[in-house]
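Regression report. Comparing outputs from two consecutive submissions.

Submission 1:
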Amino acid sequence: MRPLLDEAFLRRLSRLRFLAKSQRGGRLTGHHVSPRVGMSIEFADYREYRPGDDLRYVDWNLYGRLEKLFVKTFAHESDLPVYLLVDASASMQLGGSPKATYAAQLALALSYLGLRSMERVGLYPFADRVLSNLPPRHGMPQLGRIYRALSDLTFGQDTLMDKVLSEFVSATKESGLVIVIGDLLCSLHMKEGLSRLLYRGDDIVFLQVLAPGEIEPQGGGLSRIVDVETGKHVTLNLGRSTLEEYKVRFEQHQGELRSLLHELGVPLFTLPTTRPLERVVFEDLREGGILR
């Protein structure tokens, strides 16, 4: 899997910023202070010199090599860490264009966006548990680490969201923006884990990635259906009544998911893999108040 993004798309992303819930009238009151040029706690990155910048922060060694002025930028400890929880269960490999590829591209785009605006960004792939972690860091080298981690994901096991969220809370010490990316076609038993995050003060967003066939199944006739997460299989005659029953159950699941997240004040975005990433970022997430 190669979650590559178009350079023109990346340049457009650099104009966006994450919007903390405290800035849109919600629950999160955690700190989200923009980095500034000057003395601070942690070096973050370089940017090109602009007239009026303090010359004390020009990197003259870099100027000697590139003959171009760059200033050092620094980030405060009080910024908002961005945590990306990406589903690596077996079901994410389904679809003509696998959901896993779409989820990885989306995670990479959001990582770039956060790192360009000097946030700390971390990655936590999960299935039945948190599989690994890449703690939040500043600077564009973190994008390379996230890219490699996404490219090297291995898939398997089912999804246990409540266990995953509880493990994540225990593994991280500070509240931040928690973005969960996955198909969410699992048990909806996750209220305890979500409540722990909300109690800590985290801002949570769910991005549900689905294959078109999961939203609107096609076909029919005698078919062998395999559960990719458990390996169980059954042979069914997929007539009109079977497809209608699937649609009823799917809508019931989606309704329960929406109800649960709405009750807790957690936004949900349902994204078919056919939806262009640019529309997700520049329309859905902006209109939903996640980006500005």
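Submission 2:
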Amino acid sequence: MIQTEIAVLRFGLGARPGDLAAAAGDPRTWLTAQLKGPVQLAVNTALAPSDRIFVELLAAREERQEMKREAATSADPQAFNPVRDAYLPHYRAQVLARAQSAAVTPRPFAERLVHFWTNHFAVSADKGAVFGVAGTLENEAIRPHVNGRFVDLLTAVEQHPAMIGFLDNQYSVGKDSELARLAARRAARPRPDAADKPRREFGINENLAREILELHTLGVNGGYSQKDVTSFAQIITGWSIGGGKGRLAGGIPGRFYFRENLHEPGAKSFLGKTYYEDGQRQGEAVLSDLCRNPATASFIATKLVRHFIADDPPPAAVARVAHAFLKSGGDLPHVYAALIDAPEAWDPNVRKFKTPEDFVFSTLRALNASPTQPEEVIRSFELLGQRQYTPGSPAGWPDTAKSWDGSDALMHRVLWASRVAGRYERGLDPTDVAESSLGAYARPDTLTALRRATSSKQALALLLMSPEFQRR
């Protein structure tokens, strides 16, 4: 029977009332049934697309510049926040929709996979250019491809405006590109009237290339060199965002756009292979080859096994998943099936300590609750230390217990558990909640403590902070 709990709690997002019963007949089939088709948000929320948000950002930036010109001496910091005011409603709506979807989805394994890939392909909303569009990467690039081929997922992510803007690839210009050559010719002409004006410098930006290799595909020990990073950065020059003015205009504002005039022309060598493709296709050919590289298979398998099985990934499970990745050509449902088939995944004695995200979402599911206000979600994650869509770096949030089980972090969990218990206690029997959310994992000592609690609020808080609820 414990396999049912493992399927729902370890692979999913925590049990809602009825989840354990639904999975009890055949836990593996319950999981694999979720691996078909796109994984849309489980709530009918009309979120603005990234291109519309980018257009709003451009308008807000122009408004800010005009305000600065009109009120250059103003000391009021609130006078210069049109960009924040344009982005904040979108961020709040994305965070609320994500939490609501996690709370009610009937496909919790598929939803967890979406969250896994969002953290794997991390962008951080604490960078101004990404603040209002961080959630669109998840909804527009990851959800449609989470049950497809890795190459399609990878390409969609790397060509999404949120990723390009986060890693500044729109500013990457080949030294022999049309734009760079034009700038060099202009620089060679004397311009007495502009002697005091600094000339704009163009060059390669390696951020996106480096993170694709180090964090998205091969891994830091994947066998590439600095020369490969530079070559790859040249290959993806021109991968940009539509809009702009003058020679940087073109494309649909806010959507991926290949700017031929920024691209470094010619054949290029990368990882010992010469790529002769032209323009945008050159970068796509490299992505395709990276998806067939054994180092990529091993890196992705290691992260999946660490996330779903143990902080120290069992080598046999990693090998099984990596083999499925290579044999299937990166077909993700086959990769997930290998993860499900790994014997180590069904060891009841190996459990993962919940991240704050796991804790919040599993609590909502256990209490059969869904947040109604974005502030409720934002405040929860700020208290617990995992602000949504804000990992702070391209490496994403850490995925091991040592990053989340410190004494201060646990005290914040106690405080949050008490608040949530007080908000949702009405009409709930804590022992029923324990049974429906933990099943056979509920320890007799915990059930006894719930019955002895002085109030249902205290009992619910004890349940949420119990060792078995803190793990999945």
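Expected: both submissions complete independently.
Actual: both completed, but the second showed a warning that disappeared on reload.
Relevant detail on submission 2: The chain has a mean pLDDT of 93.
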